[in-house]
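lol ok so funny story. i was supposed to be doing the assay writeup but got distracted and ended up predicting the structure for this chain instead. priorities right. anyway since i did it might as well share w the group, maybe its usefull for someone
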Amino acid sequence: MTAQPRIGSVWARRVPDYPQHDRDFRVTGVFTKGDVTYVEVEDLESGSLSRGLLEYMLDYAKPVTGDDGTAY
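and the output, tada:
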């Protein structure tokens, strides 16, 4: 992972050999509890919200846009 997630940024997650886990999502929140960082995201296709550990949510993910909507 080269970029850190920021609220409003859009990411594309592409899991090799598991396309059923591929999705595009928008970061809706980033927060830390103790030494652990969590990311809250909105799935762009279904609109569903989910939350998970930063390192797991961004496995195989690459930023598509920044928080200001500009493309990378």
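The beta strands are 10-13, 23-33, 36-43, 49-53, 61-65. The longest strand covers residues 23-33.
back to the writeup now i swear
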